[in-house]
Amino acid sequence: MEIPRHWRLKKQRYSLQGEICPHCEGKIFPPRDVCPHCGNDARTTFTFSGRGKIYSFTHVTEAPAGFEETAPYTVALVQLEEGPVVTAQLTDVQADEVEIGMPVEMVTRKIRSDGDERGIIIYGYKFRPVMQH
Amino acid sequence: MEQPQTQILAHKPAKPVGIVGYGAYVPRYRLPAREVARIWKGGKDEAPVREKAVPGADEDVITMSIEAARNALARARIHAHEIRAVWVGSESHPYAVKPSSTVVAEAIGAPVSIQAGDWEFACKAGTEAMVAAIAMVSAGMGRYALAIGMDTAQGRPGDALEYTAAAGGAAYLIGPAEESLAVVEGTYSYVTDTPDFWRRAHERYPEHGQRFTGDPAYFKHITEAGKQLMKDLGVTAADIQYAVFHQPNTKFPQRVGKMLGFTPEQIQPGLLSPVIGNTYAGAAMIGLSAVLDCAKPGDRILVVSFGSGAGSDAFLFRTTEALVERQRLALQTQDYIARRTEIDYGMYVRLRGKLAD
Description:
The structure holds two protein chains of two kinds.
Chain A: H1 3-8, H2 10-15, E1 17-20, E2 27-28, E3 44-47, E4 51-60, E5 73-80, E6 85-89, E7 103-113, E8 121-129
Chain B: E1 17-25, E2 29-32, H1 33-40, E3 51-54, H2 61-76, E4 83-89, H3 100-108, E5 115-119, H4 125-138, E6 144-152, E7 167-176, E8 182-194, E9 197-198, E10 207-208, H5 214-233, E11 242-245, H6 251-259, H7 264-267, H8 273-276, H9 283-294, E12 300-304, E13 309-319, H10 323-327, H11 333-338, E14 341-342, H12 345-351
Parallel strand pairs in B: 2-14, 4-5, 4-6, 11-12
Antiparallel strand pairs in B: 1-7, 1-8, 2-3, 6-7, 8-13, 9-10, 12-13
Helix pairs in contact in B: 2-3
């Protein structure tokens, strides 16, 4: 059980909440309080739009412990529209539909259960192909 | 004591309120009814719907509520920190003890100074939360309150409910009338102790009273609630453009609509059960979202939910000029219905966790 860790990360996991650097305007995800672009203090909260494109991806058939329920699935590096690249599972997509450059959007989904059906449910970001409207 | 026939029983909000934003959600998987009939009835059965929506392995009432709430916020064009209540009605909350509403509130960016809670009243848990949200905003306890009806309904393998028990629902942000896309003209609820359908604690699947679920339950409560509200507000079916009823199958809402004087054309736009199944606490609410997607300013919409156990909440809404520009600010109900991946019974068994260890 890692309840404190999951609890600490909930804002960034549920809604892609990162930071913006007050000095160089750089957008930061995950939040780290120091700007990776200019090295200054950066603690201003910034919520990302959740839109991005697939930078690269791989298919996972032998899932690590805790992720078996959704296997097989695709893990992607997603370049967010604001700049940072995040690693996340894709969802609501067939493996053969995934392409580099594909536009995706963030959704909040079940990531895993901590332990069996008795443990807490961990929620967080995944990405799916952009739905048109 | 019998109430005199002339008494006005409907509630009109003390301070005018309405829907400032709404959002639907339906997961992408569909189980055709013929698949259920193939496995359990040798392929020969008269199915109550064409197909039903099934949640993905990483979806539950919390994740689906988050997406519907985000759509409602996008339409309302307000920031989540202005919300003062987050209420989720469902009969499939992921936890027996630990609120769905706190996860939803945190994920959409609602503040800590809110009311939050999970509501349970079978299929009318969401509309019960909506009545409370209307009362709260009308009383001035908050500018905006969020009421959600969402379910990932349970059907025992081989039971009649397996054809229909589906996943989906909708979220409604209630706020001041002057910002609303549909104003609340009145509400009325009708509740009795009627044991038509239930699920005991720790049981996975519900039990139902077979034919008892019809006349003394569904039809009695919806007609009583709908008739009283229309009478008290001085309107008839002819004054109303659309009517939405709880929809456990295709026939019940059509029949109850006819009993209340509505034509098939008034029922059709909000009748989603043939293509997504019965979304329980979400059913009447997502029917309303489909109607709001296509209604015009000035339209009147009657909504009557039904929850087993049993009761109905009736609402009369009147859409405003603000509706048209907000319809396109988020994904529409039909966008989700059109996103359709058919699955077979085997995949359904896996996605719904029905395999024994």
